[in-house]
């Protein structure tokens, strides 16, 4: 699976079912391993509000489905 495939999926919290947003970036260590995913929250008024990014470690991902990525945050 490519990063572009992951970026098309919504990230959803298993704890409360809340949609967290979509993946906008990935942090990779010196060995080429994914350290964490950077998620930008969905906002209707993106131009008027500051964007707070959320990070999710690869260990927090519970399941990657066809449309969503389920995470435990």
What does this structure look like?
The chain has one helix at residues 3-7; strands at residues 10-13, 19-28, 34-40, 54-57, 61-64, 68-71. With 73 residues, it is mainly beta. It has a 6-stranded mixed β-sheet. A hairpin with a 5-residue loop joins strand 2 (19-28) and strand 3 (34-40). The longest helix is centred in the N-terminal third of the chain and has 5 residues, at 3-7. The two termini are 23 Å apart. The model has no long low-confidence stretch (mean pLDDT 87).
Key features?
73 residues, mainly beta, six-stranded mixed β-sheet, 1 helix, globular
Summarize the helices and strands and which ones pair or pack.
Blueprint: H1 3-7, E1 10-13, E2 19-28, E3 34-40, E4 54-57, E5 61-64, E6 68-71
- Strand line-up in the sheet with most strands: 4-3-2-1-6-5
Q: Strand portion, in percent?
A: over 45%
Biggest sheet architecture: 6 strands, mixed
Bin the helical content: under 10%
Radius of gyration: 12 Å
- For the secondary structure, the number of strands is 6
Structural class: mainly beta
Overall average pLDDT:
87
Helical stretch count? Answer: 1
Q: Which stretches are low in confidence, meaning pLDDT under 50 for 5 or more residues running?
A: none
Quick recap:
Helices cover 7% and strands 45% of the residues. It contains one helix and six strands; from the N terminus they run H-E-E-E-E-E-E.
